């Protein structure tokens, strides 16, 4: 909701905050006896001779015009008596407003302020030397009243009058312009503390954004010292550190570094925080009414009302106040929580059942091992894969009768023609069927009593040199991206990395042979030679790819191991051939370093994200961008493809997760995310969709593993267990086991299938939303001093881990580029 703007005319000035005691000589200001508890300060407006001043004192009063008036409208005069008692008539002060022939009077009651009056009996005639000894504290109190009521012109006029009458220097350095900010924020914090425990956490949501906007306002007013004092006063508060600022520690370091107007104008953080939208806060109806009464109706702190009106958006949350832990988990985004309306569009998160690849992956003969059913074709584990067997398997697969389950239409699955996806070629179909038949029949079914084995690869001499790792789908190739712009490709089995034959040799091959793709590669003529040099074997087991001019930030390998994508600081993406070991094409379009790149599940499309605040969709057959997704003022840092290749998920520097639809929008419409999720307190490092596409899993520097429901964008649960940043994550081939790797030298395995089952059965604690690690954690594997950078499940559900060894004298926390 938007708060209505408050009037700033002199006829409806907000109630003043402070009680004022003042002294002056007989020619300028009326002195009061020292035994009076309140003081009367009457200032007439000289613009209108009909202005009435209610004062029975016989002493002469000389005052300056426009001292406490704020640009009155034409024909209107104002007479103000600050809350007090006239020393002779003992009458209560009034505010008289006259405009034309209509006159209204309103009695105001001003809050008490814990300040002491001048404890002296002052004469009506004082010398200039005596008036110079008046403490400047009283002068400051009057200025605070004017500043709290936004009377800028009156502040300057009153300062000049004070300097002229008392020969005092009232420079801006002696005036604390930050006092209204201190008073306003302290007042709101006190108001929050007075609220009951059941709803206090809802009001506390406003403290952090109010603090940031006030700090930026002081910097923009050239009050650097006061801004630093304001910042340190609240940041060092232990109560605020443990509650309000706990979710924004990373942003506080950025805010503290902003000390000039120029830095604020150029800061991407300020653009994201102030100009990328309003700070979104969800409150229950009862809390919203109390907040409206405090800020709008009571008008205790006009500065708070002004900031809330300009930069906040309040949404009514259905029902009563949410649990404090639930609110803590959903907070952390740079602009607060996510609008409810942002997650109302429909998302087709189901799989493409009509595609050949999906049918192969879900074929009953392939998954026979998990159910204990023998294969229909009778091909055992030891039976060789002959041409006859392959033809029989092909016939059984493509000519089988569709079961009732396969004929059932999934309402959440997109149409096959929604996003153009090429079908598999004939040789790709056969290779997939044969490969999956061999591997999936030996797939390990992971249970709490049958945990997976872990084969771990440690990379030595690579600390601070290796940026990223990538492994092929069949777990035979490993690609390493380095800071020196080079890419190394290693063979993880005993087969050498051979290359394609020369063009004149390819012309001699029989194109109709079904083994044409195997014959295209060079033969290993020396495999039976016992005198083969061992150094040559090592040479052929690795390849070096050079071409980038900056550090490598991301790698992605195609499903069939033919292509490798790499992105770099040089703002380019390169497509490498793993058959000829050369660069095929360079994709240009990003204007800033590219942080991540990933092939789609069907290998035809790929996506990238960059520091230029965009994510792009590409095709290996075209050099131009197919889709462009922009994120305002935030950098895109990591991404992930949905299993049905219709969506991509991205994370940005504001810690918001977004899911984008790859379907082309109508002309003139802007690409907007169909899902937004907020909850991470630090940057996200890794994203992964579940095998069925229903859930999105995210992890990063805040050590939280958050599971989101893509159907509505809600948080399912949060897994805690790691003690440092999480850089790697993978899901088993059957989709039941989640594995995470961290910089804390550990790999943790979670029972993801049981968690989802409990959620569907209503047994998952959705109120607390924090799942203890002992409930679903199956096992923890630990390394000595190796931070896990990559985790991968093989086709047989064996676990592979890859990491870089950290020397003992180095810090255990590794910064992800």
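-> sequence recovered:
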């Amino acid at each position: 909701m938007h708060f209505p703007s408050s009037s700033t005319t002199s006829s409806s000035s907000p109630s003043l905050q402070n009680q004022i005691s003042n002294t002056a000589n007989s020619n300028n200001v009326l002195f009061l006896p020292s035994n009076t508890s309140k003081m009367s300060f009457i200032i007439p407006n000289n613009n209108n001779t009909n202005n009435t001043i209610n004062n029975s004192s016989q002493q002469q009063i000389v005052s300056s015009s426009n001292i406490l008036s704020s640009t009155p409208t034409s024909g209107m005069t104002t007479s103000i008596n600050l809350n007090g008692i006239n020393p002779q008539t003992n009458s209560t002060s009034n505010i008289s407003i006259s405009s034309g022939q209509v006159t209204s009077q309103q009695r105001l009651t001003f809050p008490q302020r814990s300040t002491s009056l001048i404890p002296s009996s002052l004469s009506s005639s004082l010398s200039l030397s005596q008036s110079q000894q008046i403490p400047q504290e009283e002068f400051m109190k009057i200025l605070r009243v004017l500043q709290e009521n936004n009377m800028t012109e009156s502040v300057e006029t009153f300062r000049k009058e004070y300097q002229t009458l008392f020969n005092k220097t009232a420079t801006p350095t002696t005036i604390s312009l930050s006092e209204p900010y201190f008073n306003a924020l302290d007042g709101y914090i006190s108001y929050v503390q007075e609220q009951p425990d059941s709803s206090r956490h809802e009001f506390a949501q406003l403290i952090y954004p109010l603090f940031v906007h006030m700090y930026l306002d002081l910097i923009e007013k050239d009050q650097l010292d006061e801004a630093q004092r304001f910042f340190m006063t609240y940041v060092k508060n232990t109560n605020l550190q443990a509650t309000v600022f706990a979710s924004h520690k990373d942003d506080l370091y950025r805010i503290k570094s902003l000390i000039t107007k120029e830095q604020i104008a150029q800061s991407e953080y300020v653009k994201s925080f102030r100009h990328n939208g309003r700070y979104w806060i969800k409150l229950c109806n009862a809390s919203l009414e109390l907040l409206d009464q405090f800020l709008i109706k009571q008008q205790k702190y006009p500065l708070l009302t002004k900031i809330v009106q300009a930069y906040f958006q309040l949404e009514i949350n259905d029902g009563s106040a949410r649990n404090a832990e639930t609110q803590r988990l959903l907070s952390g985004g740079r602009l607060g929580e996510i609008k409810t309306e942002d997650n109302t569009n429909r998302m087709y998160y189901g799989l493409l059942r009509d595609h050949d690849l999906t049918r192969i992956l879900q074929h009953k003969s392939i998954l026979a091992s998990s159910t204990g059913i023998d294969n229909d074709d009778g091909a055992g584990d030891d039976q060789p894969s002959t041409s006859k067997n392959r033809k029989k398997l092909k016939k059984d697969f493509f000519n089988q009768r569709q079961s009732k389950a396969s004929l059932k239409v999934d309402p959440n699955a997109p149409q096959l023609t929604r996003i153009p996806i090429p079908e598999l070629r004939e040789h790709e179909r056969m290779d997939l069927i044969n490969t999956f038949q061999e591997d999936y029949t030996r797939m390990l079914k992971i249970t709490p009593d049958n945990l997976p084995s872990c084969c771990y690869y440690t990379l030595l001499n690579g600390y601070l040199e290796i940026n990223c790792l990538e492994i092929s789908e069949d777990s035979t190739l490993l690609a390493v991206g380095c800071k020196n712009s080079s890419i190394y490709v290693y063979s993880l089995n005993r087969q050498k990395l051979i290359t394609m034959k020369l063009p004149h040799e390819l012309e001699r091959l029989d194109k109709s042979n079904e083994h044409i793709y195997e014959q295209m590669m060079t033969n290993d003529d020396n495999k039976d030679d016992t005198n083969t040099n061992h150094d040559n074997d090592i040479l052929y087991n690795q390849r070096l790819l050079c071409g980038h001019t900056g550090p490598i930030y991301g790698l992605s390998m195609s499903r069939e191991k033919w292509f490798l994508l790499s992105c770099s600081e040089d703002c380019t993406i390169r497509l490498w051939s793993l058959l000829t070991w050369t660069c095929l094409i360079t994709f240009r379009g990003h204007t800033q370093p590219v942080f991540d790149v990933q092939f789609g599940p069907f290998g035809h499309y790929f996506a990238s994200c960059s520091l230029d605040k965009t994510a792009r969709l590409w095709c290996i057959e075209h050099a131009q961008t197919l889709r462009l997704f922009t994120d305002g003022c935030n950098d895109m840092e990591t991404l992930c493809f949905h299993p049905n290749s219709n969506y991509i998920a991205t994370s940005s520097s504001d810690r918001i997760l977004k899911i984008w639809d790859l379907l082309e929008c109508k002309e003139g419409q802007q690409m907007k995310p169909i899902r937004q999720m907020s909850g991470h307190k630090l940057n996200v490092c890794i994203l992964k969709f579940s095998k069925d596409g229903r859930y999105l899993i995210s992890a990063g520097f805040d050590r939280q593993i958050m599971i989101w429901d893509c159907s509505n964008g809600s948080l399912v649960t949060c897994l805690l267990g790691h003690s440092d940043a999480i850089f790697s994550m993978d899901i088993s081939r059957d989709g039941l086991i989640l594995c995470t790797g961290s910089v804390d030298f550990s790999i943790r395995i979670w029972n993801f299938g049981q968690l989802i089952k409990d959620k569907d059965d209503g047994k998952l604690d959705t109120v607390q939303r924090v799942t203890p690690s002992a409930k679903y954690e199956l096992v923890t594997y630990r390394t000595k001093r190796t931070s896990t950078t990559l985790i991968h499940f093989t086709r047989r559900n064996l676990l592979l881990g890859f990491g870089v060894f950290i020397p003992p004298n180095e810090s255990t926390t590794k910064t992800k580029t």
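DSSP finds 24 helices and 34 strands in the chain.
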